[in-house]
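Notebook entry, structure prediction.
Reason for the run: the old model in the group folder had no record of what sequence produced it. Starting over properly, with the input documented here first.
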Amino acid sequence: MRGCKCSKCQGKRNRSKGDSKARQARKVLNISGVNSRHEEHWGSALRVEVKAGKQVGPVWTRYLLAEGQSEQARAIGDPRPFVFVAMPEGTSDGLVVFRLSQVAAVLDALAENLGAA
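New structure, fully documented this time:
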């Protein structure tokens, strides 16, 4: 039931929203294979885990702040896609975060950077 606050209804809404986000990500990433709500069964060349909702809010907030900072310093006419690199203290590794809508542009730019283009 729409707007119901019971845990059963909230759980159904959360699952539905998560499934919808996973379908969107799967479409953009061009992942075919088994149509399952479990990303582990998608059969892609990538291992994918789609997270949605409040749990990813802090990541999104940090991304938007970094994107805004980059946008302020961007030269007029600079067409390069933006990627956010998060490297927490205590690790030598990091995360690269970018918009799903920019997948092709980011992959093209990475290919150019790596000399594969």
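Summary: Residues 86 and 95 are 5 Å apart (CA to CA).
The old model has been moved to the deprecated folder.
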